[in-house]
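Section 5.1 Outputs to date
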Amino acid sequence: MTISVNPGAELDLVFTDLLANGQAVGRAGGIVVFCFGPLPREHARVRITAVKPKYAVADLIELTQTSAERVQPFCPVFGICGGCQVQHLAYPAQLAWKTTVVRNALARIGGFGNAAVRETIGMESPRAYRNKMSLVVDRSHERVGFYKQRSHDVVEIDACPIVESRLDAQIGRLNRAKADPRTASAFKDTRHIVARSARNTGQVVVTFTSDRPAEELKERADAIVQSLDNVAGLTNSYDLSGQNAILGRKQRVLAGSEHIEESIAGVRYRVSPGSFFQVNVEIVERIFTYLEPRLEKPRKVIDLYCGAGTFSLFFAKHGSTVFGIEENAQALAEARGNADLNGFQPVARFHRGTVQDALRRPDVARELAAADLVFLDPPRKGSDEPTLGAIAARRVPAIWYLSCDPATLARDLKFLGAKGYRIGEVQPFDMFPQTGHIEALATLELV
């Protein structure tokens, strides 16, 4: 029987897989069909909306047979808001699925069919974990919100069950301040509002982002702070690098402090809303716990893409000497400040520059040649061949690679494998529950 896969056609399909963006994968007449809503092993009636040369896209009409792993989403805007992709999948099944995604990426892209991928380490309660939120302020909307799925349209919200409770409390207060004549003008030129909280100190800092310095926000800064809930500081971010930028390149403090202080496993971190710092403190602690037995003997560590020093200072706490490299000036200043805050300045040193450029410098190359271990936590695009090649050329004995994208991790591990490194094990961590994002830590040793 020939199946017609044309726009507007209604089909009954069985779905077999799930993509990181939340789309289920089915097949119709040999053509792959992507659709939001179904889960693997579910049957659904769908309507084809677009046909491409190698695949088709469909909208869900109804589920005709559901999976035992399906649960009721706990957020009223799930499926509309673009923040979460898998709230409809039971949490144990989320963890199992993420383990499979990592294994498949290593096998398919890296050629590591027998890699020792452990079961994903998750959270005790996979909600209210994010310590940073980025809200959209649209003058055509009464309330702040998040971007809708696959668009720059805005879905208005009053709460978010994924962010920490201190941040969740700010959303309703911001909506009331936006409607209050005494503070409404402060939102006039605001494009985004970024807030960051600290689990251990309870501090919250809020940043209003605008194209240029927002004078009305400055005039009403004290009133805004009073309208919010236990906010330690209010800042104005401006001078955007592009239309999609959430934070500007410049920042000024309008009230209180621009920093919050967090504590993880006995290490103190002072960070600002704009710095790179992991959004899930519980999972960072679990990564630390995983690494701790491997740090019984002090090492000389090179920390690439070190951000505000999250892992550098953890290594220093366990007796290692650390040389961190970071491109962002603000993050590097915070890394140095955090080293001072913890008394690690003699053993934790930092260099500003891109990783690729830094490793070309003779002084940094000497640091690399003397290292026992390279730790790298690159952005989603992964590292690059010049960087990985420099590590391999210096015959660094061990590499710990923390990745937020299994595909780029597999690609980079394949390169390192060709240079003489062997994978010890790969441990996924659920840094972003209810989403398709996966964190994985690979340990490698030089053969």
